[in-house]
Amino acid sequence: MDHFLYRDGTLFAEDVPIRDIAASVGTPFYVYSCATLTRHYRLFEEALSGLDHLVCFAVKSNGNQAVLAHLAKLGAGMDVVSGGEYRRARAAGVPGERIVFSGVGKTAEEMRLALEGGIRQFNLESEPEMQRLSRVASEMGTIAPVTVRVNPDVDARTHEKIATGKSENKFGIPIARAREVYAEAAALPGLDVIGIDVHIGSQLTDLEPFEIAYEKVAELTRQLRADGHDIRRLDLGGGLGIPYERSNSAPPLPIEYGEVIKRTVGDLDVEVEIEPGRLISGNAGLLVSGVTYVKQGEGRDFLILDAAMNDLIRPAMYGAWHDIIPVEEPAPGVDQTPYDIVGPVCESGDTFAKQRHMPPLAEGDLVAFRSAGAYGAVMASEYNTRPLIPEVLVKDDHFAVIRARPTFDEIIKRDTVPEWL
Ligand SMILES: *Cc1c(COP(=O)(O)O)cnc(C)c1O
Q1: How far out from the chain centre does Cα 123 lie?
Q2: DSSP characters over 218-246
Q3: How far apart are the first and last CA of the chain?
Q4: Cα gap 36→255, rounded to integer Å
């Protein structure tokens, strides 16, 4: 459920008409709803109630400072995958002890940054990384709390580009080698081995892969404890999927996901962390765009929007579906027309949808892409020298621009022409 609904024939974000935001900010833009972010964060809180737990929002899904600050006020921790995201989380007011650091390629500089600023734990992904953190922490005269990310070799049954838990993926260490790697970690100076980490992929629409992976982690917890490790925290990753196509998908609910967690690791007397991104931020955002032209092609009509693949890359990159709806509510029973919905970028890949049935639309009309709050703005670029589009946050009946559109001067001035040219 989200807070983007038609009222009096026009689409609202909470109590603000989308067309008012469009008139003030100009299209295209992203708009996020505080109430929806809150609701989805709380669904996870409720799903884990009764367990000692922390919900760490995956910053990579939506790293805007206002979004992070809002979630931080609700008590969320953060999962970061770079020094830049670590800085974002800290700048949004998240204390170091609520930040976990994931990712396969942490540099010594990023390790120092997090150790200086405070960190809940590093999720280590390889032996060389383990050795480097040991060296960095020892040089600083400190102890780094760590888990090791294990790769359980489970098929997450999601898009191949966002599956991370199969043995051929670059993530984690093979679970079969875990006892050996934990023994090595425990022997290294500067590391405190506190738990186990797993994350098998994103946009999972089935609970079974989670269940299989968490069973394996539970078994490993018992083995590692028997080997003498004080395993007291399990980071179970993120990945729960959302219904991008509302008419025919109903992924599992957070409460059902919570039941899987309780069933698999609930009796281990551990602190549980989860790292949801998409399920918290995805349906909390829309991409709003204007129709620039309706073009009649050979046997098909094109809806040419002012948004493009550089603003929302998911359709081009993953073949992803986004529901696209008109901002002005169509009259009931109006005939639908198939359109190819495209952007103005000079690539055929700049296609959001093919032969999508929509009510008839005309130049100047507004459309909204649903479920665009996650992996939308964060993956945007300025390809074709199209400025990064603004982000807007709505709370009740007010809205604010939380990232402004850069001017062309700002964009061009980032380059420098060397004087010897
Ligand atoms: C991407 C990622 C997440 C978040 O995944 P979602 O599908 O957005 O919930 C969590 N943890 C790690 C390590 C990730 O790489």
Answers
A1: 18
A2: HHHHHHHHHTT----EEE----B---SSG
A3: 56
A4: 17
Residue 147, CB-side half-sphere exposure with 13 Å CA sphere: 30
pLDDT 10s digits, 248-289:
778 999 999 999 999 999 999 999 999 999 999 999 999 999
Question: Sorting pLDDT into bands at 50, 70 and 90, what band is 227?
Answer: very high
Query: Per CATH, which fold does 103-274 belong to?
Result: TIM Barrel (3.20.20)
* Least confidently predicted of 127-141, 153-167, 312-326: 153-167
Distances (CA, A) of 147 to 122, 132, 144, 182, 303: 6, 15, 10, 9, 49
Compute the distance from residue 169 Cα to the ligand 1 centre, in Å: 15
CA nearest to 27, candidates 263, 374, 287, 216:
287
- Which of ligand 1's atoms lies nearest the C-alpha of 281? 8
**Torsion 368-371-377-380 (CA) sign:** negative
Strand partners, 204: 240
Could you please state the CATH topology (level 3) that the domain comprising 4-31+282-412 is classified under.
Answer: Lyase, Ornithine Decarboxylase; Chain A, domain 1 (2.40.37)
Average pLDDT, rounded, for the chain: 97
Give the side-chain half-sphere CA count within 13 A for 123.
30
Reply yes or no: is the peptide bond before residue 28 cis, omega within 30 of 0: yes
Cα of 240 to ligand 1 centre, how many Å? 9
| Range with lowest mean pLDDT among 3-17, 70-84, 243-257 | 243-257
Structural contact between residues 281 and 270, judged by C-beta atoms closer than 8 angstroms = no
- pTM (2 decimals)? 0.97
pLDDT of residue 368 exceeding 80, the answer is yes
| Closest atom of ligand 1 to CA, residue 204 | 7
- What are the residue boundaries of the structural domains of the chain, listed by start? 4-31+282-412, 103-274
